[in-house]
Specification:
13 helices, single chain, about 0% strand, mainly alpha, about 280 residues
Length: about 280
């Protein structure tokens, strides 16, 4: 039954053409494209909702409700776009994790941390999207409830940066540990994946102020963090594309590594030299 279904699908898609279209390489290329689409969908969600520039945190409940009433259709569209952007973030995360496993002497925990952090990070897209959809669903409710839901939306959209920091730091570590003459990812990507999440940190204080650079419409919390986040997604996706293209045509064997020594220590072990432990090395 399964074989007949497979033959019928292959015949439907055109034999060898289907094998090419559905190849693992093309699947990973699609994951790269999803990263760029994630950034675009996330950006367009704010544009459609009339949140470029963001509404003011110090607005009254009536002013906030008026914005929702005048942008009702756009906010409904924006909530849907933001939800989809969360879905598109997952394939990019999975493809990065898969390519990280090609780096020699990289402990499995590093790629696992990147993958787990990225999976957790989708809630930064999906939770605000559902909160925004709930806020615009009944605009005949008291204005104070809409204002509460709006506060909830902005805080859940911009404040939960820690998952992205752990994800990017794990990716940067993998890039830095690759000391081959032709590393899988360029070293400047490590700098980007370290510097960008550090610039997300000011958002941790966004609930403490309604004005200034730390407010949700401020220069640090929204404009700097938002533009860098979308730009980083595009850059990571492009560099990931070239990493995937460098894979051998027939594939390569990947073995999960659990190294507990540095590469120079491994060289000594292979050559038969003694490797000092931590206590003797410090002395």
């Amino acid at each position: 039954m399964a074989s007949s279904t497979s033959r019928s699908m292959t015949g439907f898609l055109g034999g060898q053409r289907a094998v090419h279209i559905l190849s693992p390489r093309n699947f990973q290329y699609a994951c790269c494209v999803s990263g760029i689409l994630c950034a675009l969908f996330f950006l367009f969600a704010f544009v459609a909702s009339g949140f470029i520039a963001p509404i003011k945190p110090y607005w009254t409940a009536e002013q906030t409700l008026h914005h929702f009433q005048t942008h009702e259709g756009g906010i409904q569209t924006g909530a849907a776009l933001m939800l989809i952007s969360g879905m598109l973030y997952l394939p990019l995360t999975a493809a990065i994790s898969a390519q990280m496993r090609r780096i020699p002497n990289l402990h499995y925990a590093v790629s696992a941390l990147q993958l787990a952090s990225g999976a957790a990070g989708i809630f930064t897209f999906m939770m605000p999207a559902m909160i925004l959809a709930t806020a615009v669903f009944r605009l005949d409710r008291p204005a104070e409830i809409t204002q509460l839901m709006t506060d909830f939306f902005w805080i859940t959209a911009l404040m939960p940066w820690p998952t992205f920091m752990t994800q990017n730091f794990a990716f940067a570590y993998a890039i830095l540990i690759d000391q081959r003459p032709h590393p899988l990812f360029p070293k400047f990507m490590a700098v980007i994946n370290i510097a960008v999440p550090i610039l997300f940190v000011p958002a941790i204080a966004m609930h403490c102020t309604k004005t200034g650079p730390l407010a949700w419409n401020g220069g640090l919390t929204f404009w700097t963090a938002g533009s860098l986040f979308c730009s980083q997604l595009v850059i990571d996706s492009i560099c990931l594309f070239f990493a995937i293209r460098s894979e051998p045509v027939g594939g390569e064997k990947i073995v999960d590594m659990f190294p507990n020594t540095l590469p120079h220590a491994d060289d000594k072990i292979e050559s038969g030299e003694s490797v000092p432990n931590g206590s003797s090395e410090s002395s």
